[in-house]
Design goal:
It is a single chain. The chain is of the alpha+beta class. The chain contains five helices and three strands, in the order αββαβααα. The chain has one domain: GMP Synthetase, Chain A, domain 3 (2-Layer Sandwich), CATH 3.30.300.30. β2, α2 and β3 form a beta-alpha-beta unit.
Length: 131
């Protein structure tokens, strides 16, 4: 799925994680980072990417939520912290590794996740997750 998302000309990076779904068990959620000069309409981009995944992978993929981020959380070596993203969309505790490149981006990502109706704010504090 990440390859399909990255195929879009405005997207420089992408990550896909699974959130819990009562009916299907797990469903994918996408995170994308745009090129600096790109400025597509977020709703149109999300609709396009959902259709693109459905067309290229099939309806079973059922990607329905895509979030645009300024950057993905990564380690200093460049590895994407998908477990942190998964914890955010599931509303579960997650551990932020000490090798994270920039932990200051995490609250902004969590706000985007919450704005999409995923995760939970109460009980999900970064300081608690890091203990």
């Amino acid at each position: 799925m990440e390859e399909v998302l990255i195929d879009h000309p405005d997207i420089v990076e992408a990550a896909v994680v699974a959130r819990i779904d009562e009916l299907k068990g797990e469903v994918p959620v996408g995170f994308v980072v745009l090129y600096p000069e790109s400025n597509p309409d977020p709703k149109e981009l999300e609709a396009y990417l959902v259709k693109k995944i459905r067309k290229e992978i099939g309806p079973i993929a059922c990607l329905k939520k895509v979030m645009i981020l300024d950057s993905l959380p990564k380690t200093r070596s460049g590895k994407c912290l998908r477990n942190v993203l998964k914890g955010m969309v599931r509303g579960t505790a997650y551990k932020v590794p000490p090798t994270i490149m920039d932990a200051s981006i995490l609250p902004a990502i969590l706000e985007i996740v919450l704005a999409k109706g995923l995760g939970v704010k109460s009980g999900l504090a970064f300081s608690e997750a890091n203990k």
